[in-house]
Task: structure prediction
Amino acid sequence: MHAAEIRQHDWSDAHARLDRAGHSRADDRGPAPQMDPKSTDNVRTNAMWVTAQVLAYLDPNFDVVEFARECGVALSPGALRAGLRGGKDGYHRPGTRKFDE
Result:
């Protein structure tokens, strides 16, 4: 569900405008400057990582590799895991760089 929302969003003009959830250029009133495909992928990947950080903290069975694939993010499993704060012993509390005590 979270991944589907990230995947279907049109991120190509995210640097130039505030868009509601589910943005599609087909609904825009006028054109906005667009990022190149690599920059668009970077924004999508960052949105995936921010969401994944919270999900990994909340769910000990969370799989960032599967989540990224469903978001439309194609990076190696090692790179995907490196994008989260924490690791096999748990993840940092969202909004902090600290583990729960």
